[in-house]
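job 3f2a | input accepted
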Amino acid sequence: MPNMQSLSDKVIFENFKDNFERALQELYRRYYSKLLAVALNRLENQEDAEECVQDVMFNLFKQRYTLVLQTESLSYYLVKAVMNRSLRMMAQHHRRRTYSTDYSPELHTDITPERQIIFREFHEQIENSINDLPSQCQLVFRMNKDYGLSAKEISMKLAISENTVNSHLKKAKKLIRKNLDITLPILLHLLYFMCH
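job 3f2a | predicted structure (196 res):
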């Protein structure tokens, strides 16, 4: 096989199955810095950003026999994968913070166990609704709600217009509200019967 550095991404990816060690090394050489910058821009933590890129590369290795790139380039696929992974990490961090505070028994000594279950269910429904949003829409929503960033700050971080940010936020709120319109009556019904 010729020198990896002289090969296109497409050829490297096609030979990934047979020569994955050299291929992976070359992909790290080409894209690690770029992917790390993308992750760091979102996670704002060096250790988390490095973990994010490692996870994406490891998943690429695991999927080497089944992954098929359609029209997108490998570079585009990796950047998109890092953005999605960083989004999931942000959500995980948020959930850990929420459960370590909002649902701490010490903070809710006046709430019955039954109501805690319902509140937890409601929170999970909200999280599920957010997780069901399209990836870019979800990222914008979490940056706004979880991290308190303004539309202008989000537009600068993601390199998109403020109008696009506001459009994503409007869409996210509409979809989440629609989802909760279905589940909230059920949870309130459960809350009534569990607590009476």
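job 3f2a | The chain has two domains: 1-83, 102-196.
job 3f2a | closed
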